[in-house]
Amino acid sequence: MNGPTTDEQARQRLEEITRPEKPFNRFKWIVTAVLLVMFLGSSATVDVQLGQITALPERTVFYLGLMFGPPDLGEIPRATTAMIESLGMAWIGTMIGAALSFPLAFLAATNLFSKPIVFVARQILNLFRAVPEIVFLIMLLPVTGLTPVSVALALGISSIGTLGKLSAEVIEGIDHGPVEAADAAGGGRLQRIRWSVIPQVIPEIVALWLYRFEINIRNSAVAGAVGAGGIGTLLIRQISQLRDWAAAGTALAVMVILTLIVDTISGRVRRRIIRGPQRAVDIGADEDDDDGGGRTPKVPGPAPTTAGNGPLAPI
Amino acid sequence: MTGATAPPTTSAFRRPTKPPPPAFAIWGTIGFIAVTLLFAWDWRYGIGFSPAEIIENLGRRNPILEGARNLDWSTLASPTVIAGFVETFQMAAIATILGGIVALPLALLNSVTGAPNRTVYVLVKNFNSFIRAIPDLIYAVFFVAAIGRGAMPGILALFFLSVAVIAKLTSDIVDGIDPGPIESARASGATHTQMLRTAVLPQILPGYTSFALYTFEINLRGSAVLGFVGAGGIGQVFNNYYQRGWFDRLAAVVVGFFVVVFIVDRVSIAVRKRLL
């Protein structure tokens, strides 16, 4: 009697089970709407002449033609020297940032210090992160002048924020066994840090320094804004003042090639530091481990927050 | 005689000898120090970094810090400064959104999982590295020379910066995703594109959105320097005040800028936490 009804119900039920309703994600829609409004609003109001957009493809091709058709090879020595100067600024800057961020990173780690100390340390790190390099650079000009040293100092100071934050995250991820062991053996806070924390974190933190160095190579172009040396200054002078496009093409090529070479070396060293001597199973010859373009925010999923995360080893 | 029993006991628990550090650690440390010294030295390929000189010069008159001591707050209300802030915001928004759209396919193809074959993978990977190797300021100066001053070259520079950052960060999480959904998509006969759409995209979307938001902050900060080569935004105001030596006004704008970036940073971190 009620056979077909049950059947019907069963079919309906099966439908319900096999095709679950797509969950409605309000948050996602809000984000999409905000982005759309931001984009349309900005595009409609921004001060850009239409001519600049329409001329873009043709002008770009034209000037690239001037730069590379053919580039001025006589410029190579000067460009190389300038690029080495940029590398120097980036390296010294990174070392300054490393030295200054190292103690702060410990103070900003929740597993080592109490909440108020961590809070203050984190705010100091945020402060350094929010100020652009150019601001530090301008502040330093009266002290060290229009020199690469000013750029190195500016890069160093502005590296403190990111380096400190990422290092603190490394420190928070340590194994607590050794800390307890040092504690049990009567070690004070400094001794615990020296003997239980530092040996665990130093490889990853050094890898972070190297990765920051790669970023600072790019950031060292900021020197060009005020004319404090390096490849940035050379390129900007060639393009906007001398309009020597062939020379600029050479300088650009030298910059890109040397940047990529240094990236590759630094990436390999970083991988070696993190993974140890065993030969990692390579997926693709040069897998960079993290973002070279920016400062790593927290990533979801299996990738940890530090510089060592490569593609996971194949099963 | 009974007192002499103690030394043998301790010697039985003699402290084990510390293993020598691995060769890599030794050479690595030497290399690190050597590179630092070579770059710090005052010679042809060094920058001549002298801490003593810096400390000595710290005492020199610093008109910029003097300006910072008597900030001219009224500057923040001036139309040029407000226009600069608005333009920076517009540039960052447009560049981040366009860059995010372009970066998504580049990120997928820049991973072993997402690329249809090895050739595409290698090509896209090298393309991304190339884009990433050029600093935003250099993009800006090129486009200013090519199409003239204003917000447009700034947007283009930040666009390339955004593509580089988002593609890099996102492609790093593509290879780390759960392979289960990919297998089931393949098993049910999905094409490569369908697989990306149904198995990969949902997994990387939270990370991708979070990186895009983070790039917005980077773009805001980045726009501070672009104005120095004529590429619009608040940097133009910075440059103007810097060139004229109006350091009291410059300091006020810097503080204003700092507050804006700090707030955006906080909001973005809150949203990102909610995303992940």
Mean of all residue-level pLDDT scores of chain B: 90
For the record, the CATH architecture of chain B stands as Orthogonal Bundle
Spatial shape of chain B: globular
> What is the C-alpha radius of gyration of chain B, as a whole number of Å?
27 Å
Helix content of chain B: over 70%
Measured between the Cα atoms of the first and last residue of chain A, the distance is 56 Å
**Percent in strands of chain A:** under 5%
Regarding quaternary structure, how should these chains be classified? heterodimer
By CATH, the architecture of the domain at 73-275 in chain A is named: Orthogonal Bundle
Order of helices and strands of chain B: HHHHHHHHHHHH
Descriptive keywords:
heterodimer; A: 315 residues; mainly alpha; MetI-like fold; 12 helices; 72% helix; 0% strand; disordered C terminus; B: 276 residues; globular; disordered N terminus
In short:
With 315 residues, chain A is an all-alpha fold. Helices cover 72% and strands 0% of the residues of chain A.
Structural summary, described in words:
The complex is a heterodimer of chains A (315) and B (276). Chain A is mostly helical. Chain A has a domain at 73-275: MetI-like fold (Orthogonal Bundle), CATH 1.10.3720.10. Chain A contains twelve helices and no strands. Chain A has helices at residues 3-18, 26-45, 50-68, 76-107, 115-130, 133-144, 148-172, 177-184, 189-219, 223-226, 230-242, 245-275. In chain A, helix 3 packs across helix 12 and helix 4 (76-107) runs antiparallel to helix 5. The longest helix of chain A has 32 residues, at 76-107. Mean pLDDT of chain A is 85; it is low at 280-315. Chain B is an all-alpha fold and 276 residues long. Chain B has a single domain (70-275), classed as MetI-like fold (Orthogonal Bundle), CATH 1.10.3720.10. Chain B is built from twelve helices and no strands. Chain B has helices at residues 6-12, 23-40, 51-58, 63-69, 79-109, 118-133, 136-147, 151-174, 180-187, 192-226, 234-244, 247-275. The longest helix of chain B is centred in the C-terminal third of the chain and has 35 residues, at 192-226. The termini of chain B are far apart. The model of chain B is unreliable at 1-6 (pLDDT under 50). The chains are: A mainly alpha (315), B mainly alpha (276). At the A-B interface, helix 2, helix 3, helix 4, helix 5 and helix 6 of A face helix 2, helix 3, helix 4, helix 5 and helix 6 of B.
